Amino acid sequence: MDLGLEGKKAIVCASSRGLGKGCAEALAEAGCDIVLNGRNEAVLAATKAALETSYSVSVTSIAADVSTKEGQRALLAACPDPDILVNNNGGPPRRDYSELDREALLEGAIQNFVTPVELIQAVVPGMKDRGFGRIVNITSLSVKMPIEGLDLSSGARAGLTAFLAGVCRQLAPHGITINNLLPGKMDTDRLKGGFERAAQQSGTSIEAIRAAQSAEIPARRFGNAEEFGQACAFLCSRHAGYITGQNLLMDGGLYPAAF
Fold first, then answer.
1. CB-based burial of residue 165 (10 Å sphere; 0-12 exposed, 13-18 middle, 19+ buried)?
2. Would you say the pTM of this structure is higher than 0.85?
3. For residues 232, 92, 41 and 15, what is the CA-based torsion angle, rounded to 10 degrees?
4. Mean pLDDT, residues 9-15 taken together
5. H/E element, 36
């Protein structure tokens, strides 16, 4: 399917690896010029080289923490007029709510609520002028289904979802859509880290924990960054102009509900 994105410009936050990288790859495949972002310069450089080798698009890499104003300014300087913004950022570490102090609470809110709102505020005026804009926020299954120890991540991302539910309707007349992708158990480094912690705590092997968790998913497998990225690219496409304010679960059927 031709997504109608040839020549569009996309900023993809936290995209040197994992789900962000999957989104960057899918958008590059669709013909978008890409601004990559990450904190590890070596990993970022490797991702940039791979995209440039595979696709005939411009790829710019910005090594920065997108949660900082300096990092945001660097991204926007590299691409002042993006057609597409994919908001993504690492979530706070797994921690019981009782262990969260004020500093941790504020940092989590900045990472997963304040930062995407600030970037949206920055890119929307240009999108309005051009009559086209696609904004996709990578949030989490935990927005809809609580996950123990991820309360801060869940709360910040649920707040973002509610905040943008009204904003997206203000922007719809201007050809701008805002949607959220909610990953479930995806085969990423973060998930593997969870297996390692569970193995240490229980004395069970990583392989056994992985198999048990996979069996809980109706699809009987974990998701991957490639299919996640393709869903993101579709939401950014010309075919998705009538889709806004939606939360797309990508969880293999793990969330048990009809709506």
1. middle
2. yes
3. 0
4. 98
5. strand 33-38
